[in-house]
């Protein structure tokens, strides 16, 4: 078991554990908050959706958005991952600008051509999924095909550029502007004009057009529009093996709605999607942390500062467990407060989805080892197997148990991914885990988790009870010595320093 590093004096020398921790806390917080606004639009608009959309409408919208999610992978080709890894291989600012310009030129041209092709063949392909009667290709999927290539420039270029450079505030500003555009257009079309699920998709298209202007401005300032095969080829070789991985990740996150649409009513799909949105918050915050973590991890290994990594992995697991535990405990009350009564049964989905995303969070730290050694050819093997396991589980179980089967499928799929990622990572290089402490953290979270079954009325009293149960988790971490005295002092100093920077 790895030993936690000694924490130095509070003068924050460069490369110290405390300076690294403070920087990670600051960037992680900024990325997480902005990603909540950017990626959790559906969650933040749940009160609006459940008040103005029927369960069937919300189910249809969720299927269209699931199609949008897989198209984002196909349009992006995993090249945002190439920016995060190959940016550091470029020699000089001129080559960086040419590298980014090459990717911009390709993604723009490719996006236009792909949308034109899918518009032609889509009406014949979409009915093959068995969903054309409830979710028609036109207007639902047509609106998606118009919005995705516009959004792709921001998702695949602007945001990766900002988090790779550690420019968290610019990342947040761009994300918040995108969020404001989508929210404003959606409220206008769904609430003001009563356009229903189609209005929500029109809102996303309008927002994509609005956000395109600052996207072009940012790219013009940071890239040199060109195309060099010598720069594009390594990026494509790095990213293409990730495409099956990303599609399989989509299968883990979104395919359950497609499968559900073939076995249960759109009402049930709508209820399931509402519950899933609450569990998805765990993934969104973890993704924000990961945006700060990945560049730091690569840089720490490149500069030979690996001694901090095992302890930091433990802290990451502590936070991931806290997020999953909090989502599970507060699920019933949050759903009751934020949704219309017709959706209140959706809370039962949340604990299972949160557990699935906790397992995925652990898998990300094994993934670090594979990405560090550029073993992108192995990554798809883990997610393809997990995606197929998820889809197979759903097809086998949903017809017998209904929508709860899809939630169990999420847990099963991520468990498969974790097991396979850990196996390949162990065969690739040293694993940065403090195994004893990680196991202890997981067990302590499981000790508190059964409290989600308790219920009292009214809802405010139940929330106080659940918050009290949640407070047991950090108390157990301290009481069992999982965090030692030196780490508690260092964490307090890091939070205090971070607060001073914010002020």
SSE layout and pairings?
Layout: H1 17-39, H2 41-44, H3 46-52, H4 55-76, H5 79-86, H6 93-125, H7 137-164, H8 168-192, H9 196-222, H10 229-239, H11 242-253, H12 255-263, H13 266-302, H14 309-338, H15 349-372, H16 379-401, H17 404-426, H18 435-448, H19 459-479, H20 485-502
Helix pairs in contact: 1-8, 1-13, 1-20, 4-7, 4-9, 4-11, 4-12, 4-13, 5-7, 5-10, 6-7, 6-10, 7-8, 7-9, 8-9, 11-16, 12-16, 13-14, 13-15, 14-15, 14-18, 14-19, 15-17, 16-17, 18-19
Attribute tags:
2 domains, mainly alpha, disordered N terminus, 0% strand, 503 residues
Walk me through this protein's architecture.
- 50% of the residues are buried.
- The protein has helices at 17-39, 41-44, 46-52, 55-76, 79-86, 93-125, 137-164, 168-192, 196-222, 229-239, 242-253, 255-263, 266-302, 309-338, 349-372, 379-401, 404-426, 435-448, 459-479, 485-502.
- It contains 20 helices and no strands.
- The longest helix has 37 residues, at 266-302.
- It is mainly α and 503 residues long.
- The chain folds into two domains: 7-39 and 241-503, no CATH class; 56-240, no CATH class.
- It starts with 16 loop residues before the first helix and ends with a helix.
- The radius of gyration is 22 Å and the shape is globular.
